[in-house]
Design brief:
alpha/beta; Aspartate Aminotransferase, domain 1; Aspartate Aminotransferase, domain 2; 2 domains; 7-stranded mixed β-sheet; 4-stranded antiparallel β-sheet; 11 helices; 13 strands; disordered C terminus; binds pyridoxal-5'-phosphate
Length: 387
């Protein structure tokens, strides 16, 4: 089989088993003592991930924590960063945002007593175009910025593959007094995110797509350094948000941990964290810059091959500029249907199928290719999705 579906679930690195087995062994041999006596003491396990994860997303260690799952983190971030008032309560997202994100922001609007339709502003592509345009975002913010509490954009749009300029969006939002956050599920491990310098207030991502950390694995979360010690931000807390030094005295009044760690609630699932640790160690060994460089070459080569087909029914909707995309190419195929996907499957190519966008006049299939090379030993991984 040719596995081209790593955008949905990344493949298992060879060393993952070893990392998980280590924890299973410590659990078998040490029981509860594994928290302190294990080879990698569980009490500190999340800290083993922080530095490399911060490097992968371009953040400072104090700004990053691995915890919970993605949509859950998005909600926890909105508890702190979506603070609607009677006049400034709207949320701006990109049209064609990943459904979970749309459902999450709609439910936040309802939770605060607002209408989830009226309160949601969509940044849409222009008629006849596929990609969102920054001038349109400026126009929306100029006209309605004072009513927008939160700008929440997918760092790389899952549908078109458009890698947004996070810094530019953040500056536009902040200029109008909006909080700005990003869902980087399709960005983490795929593109150079530079989250710290983007100035974004928060970001979230998952680790099971481009970061190959296993089904349903934990999410990463970024909170900008300027919020690290802000104890006035509203948040939901648990014992893992409490000062590590006094956490186990169990009777103390709550004492907020500084930085992104302070958003944790629970002691984390170590087995999934072991899989993340294995994966980011592969990223570290390969060198993230090397990975990006190879990814750009592969994607460019693939684009060249598609253009060489010279078929007017086939159109790449992903930006052609390498800085405006990751390893994804979304391709519209006119007059094609699911049969195209089935043929690919029969040819031994594992891929995703999603319902096409409603467009009755022009039946078409959108194929998204995710070509990325992860060089670990001789492992080569490509990603592919059919919408
Ligand atoms: C994959 C993905 C999700 C999935 O959310 P989970 O909570 O991990 O199930 C949400 N948002 C985006 C943008 C995604 O790409």
């Amino acid at each position: 089989m040719i596995y081209l579906c790593g955008n949905s679930l990344g493949l298992q690195p060879k060393i993952t088993k070893e990392y998980i087995n280590q924890e299973l062994e410590d659990w078998a041999n040490l029981g509860v003592e594994g928290h302190t006596e294990g080879k990698n003491p569980w009490l500190h396990y999340h800290e083993f991930l922080t530095k490399t994860m911060a490097e992968v997303v371009g953040a400072k260690p104090i700004e990053v924590v691995v915890m919970n799952t993605l949509t859950a983190n998005l909600h926890f971030m909105m508890v702190s960063f979506y603070k609607p008032t009677s006049t400034r309560y709207k949320i701006l997202i990109e049209a064609d945002a990943f459904p979970s994100d749309k459902y999450a922001v709609e439910s936040q609007l309802r939770h605060h007593g607002f209408d989830d339709h009226e309160g949601l502003i969509l940044w849409k592509a222009r008629e006849g175009e596929e990609l969102a345009n920054y001038e349109d975002l400026e126009t929306i913010l100029e006209a309605q910025g004072d009513t927008i509490a939160l700008v929440m954009i997918g760092g790389v749009n899952y549908y078109t593959g458009q890698f947004f300029d996070l810094k530019r969006i953040t500056e536009l939002g902040h200029k109008k007094g909006c909080v700005v956050g990003f869902d980087c599920a399709h960005g983490a491990g795929n593109v150079t995110l530079d989250l710290h310098n983007s100035g974004a207030d928060f970001a979230v991502w998952c680790t099971y797509k481009y970061m190959n950390s296993g089904p349903g694995s934990l999410s990463g979360c970024f909170v900008h350094e300027r919020h690290a010690n802000n104890k006035d931000l509203n948040r939901f807390t648990g014992w893992w948000s409490h000062n590590k030094q006094t956490r186990f005295r169990m009777r103390d009044a709550f004492d907020q941990l500084p930085g992104a760690e302070g958003w944790q609630l629970s002691n984390p699932p170590i087995l999934s964290m072991a899989a993340i640790r294995a994966s980011i160690d592969v990223f570290k060994a390969a060198g993230f810059d090397n990975l990006i460089e190879k990814s750009k070459k592969l994607t460019g080569y693939f684009e060249f091959l598609i253009h060489a087909l010279d078929n007017p029914d086939i159109k790449i909707i992903t930006p052609s500029h390498p800085e405006e995309r990751g390893c994804q190419l979304s391709i519209q195929v006119k007059n094609a249907d699911r049969g195209l996907h089935d043929q690919l499957t029969q040819a031994g190519v594992i891929s995703d199928w999603r319902e096409p966008r409603c467009d009755s006049l022009c039946p078409r299939t959108i194929i998204q290719f995710f070509s990325r090379c992860l060089q670990y030993g001789r492992a080569i991984e490509n990603h592919f999705i059919v919408v």
